[in-house]
Design a protein that fits this description.
Layout (H helix, E strand, L loop, with lengths): L7 E5 L14 H8 L3 H6 L10 H24 L4 E5 H8 L1 H10 L12 E5 L5 E5 L4 H10 L10 H6 L1 H12 L4 H10 L4 E3 L3 H4 L3 H5 L3 E6 L2 E6 L23 H7 L4 H9 L4
Parallel strand pairs: 1-2
Antiparallel strand pairs: 3-4, 4-5, 6-7
Helix pairs in contact: 1-4, 3-4
Length: 275
């Protein structure tokens, strides 16, 4: 007899139905289908893609939310359900701002993509920094004053869009005159949204990352192992990593025993191929 309260979740690339349900793919394929790479098409710039498996990682988050919602629904209605998580569906939901503009205004190019100071630039020491002025005139004025381009400070958003190529070239030349860290310090003091493009080595030694406790050590069978901590801060019940990632089936017997199964019943499940 099937337990009607069971909650079962699966994660797949395109979901359990539809014309793409059996199509092979990896993270970059799902990003492309969801429109995350559209800006590359419009800009003519085709890098290897983000260095993070966005679809893979976000699908785990959506699965967690789905399971938690199903648990609450079971509390209310008394039945479990199947939770079908598609990596592509999740990424499409993250494109809701861009798709909303397209669906209602017919524009496929986001305004932020036309901003000259919303990009990555190389500094004098060959390291990189970001400018992230999405649309704000006051941030643009601060930037122009900080880099000695006062004559451009009063350009409006529309004027910046029209002169994007010229302004990007100007910014590249200006930012090539100091090191990355010099610019980040100077621009931060000038109230300009910016940031260093870090290597992994720099990430784990950054004072903000360390202050937030994002790198922790966990006891393992072969000694202490460094891990990335849980990113959410709880005021009353702080999260902690109690153990390393278990091996497949490592805790099966422990969990079944805690649920009341006898050793004989567990062995029977093993013989039947259930576990």
């Amino acid at each position: 007899k099937i337990n009607p309260r069971i909650i079962y979740c699966s994660i797949s690339g395109y979901g359990q139905d539809g014309p793409y349900q059996d199509r092979p793919g990896h993270d970059l394929s799902y990003q492309a289908t969801a429109g995350l790479l559209a800006n590359y098409i419009e800009s003519g710039n085709f890098p290897a893609g983000p260095g993070v498996a966005i679809a893979d990682l976000s699908s785990a988050m959506f699965a967690t939310i789905g399971i938690l919602a199903a648990l609450r629904a079971r509390d209310r209605f008394g039945v479990g359900q199947y939770v079908d998580v598609s990596m592509t569906d999740g990424l499409v939901s993250w494109m809701s701002a861009a798709l909303g503009i397209y669906l209602n205004m017919g524009s496929s190019l986001q305004a932020v993509a036309r901003e000259p100071a919303y990009s990555v630039f190389q500094a004098k020491d060959k390291k990189y920094l970001t400018l992230s002025i999405a649309h704000e005139d006051h941030f643009w004025r601060n930037l122009c004053h900080a880099i000695g381009k006062d004559e451009l400070a009063e350009l409006t958003r529309e004027q910046r869009h029209l002169r994007k190529d010229e302004l990007v070239a100007m910014l590249r030349d200006a930012l090539a005159t100091k090191t990355r860290d010099e610019w980040v310090e100077l621009l931060t003091k000038a109230d300009v949204p910016c940031g260093p493009v870090y290597t992994l080595e720099e990430v784990v030694s950054d004072p903000q990352i360390l202050h937030r406790g994002l790198i922790v050590e966990v006891d393992g069978p072969e000694g202490r192992v460094k891990q990335v901590a849980h990113p959410i801060k709880f005021s009353e019940t702080p999260a902690q990593i109690r153990m390393l990632l278990p091996k497949l089936g490592e805790h099966t017997e422990e969990i079944l025993t805690s649920l009341g199964y006898s050793p004989e019943e567990i062995e029977g499940l093993r013989k039947e191929g259930v576990i």
